[in-house]
Structure prediction request, 109 residues.
Amino acid sequence: MRERNSTCLEFRTGDPLTPWLRCHSRLETARFLPDGHGIVTMDDLGRARIWELPEDDKSVEDLRDLSRLLIGETLAPANGPSQPETDPLRIVWERLRARYPGAFLSFEP
Prediction:
């Protein structure tokens, strides 16, 4: 059986709401569990599955800043991606590195 990847998208923007979900059939529907720690999906064969979502204690602002660092651009929903100046990303990197030191490695030349 062929493996597929699916993700849940925000209806209005199309932005991904979940990490990639690996499955063997096409997902038809998905709903977040009331506690927010999982998703229940239904595939095209009528099978249900519960996916546990990883917990993260980072704020929404920090998660947005981490995504800026990873893609090297800012996301403006109305205008799409835009290239920021280098210095603002450096400031974000330094702030997040101070807040989450175990998540950032530093290499000295």
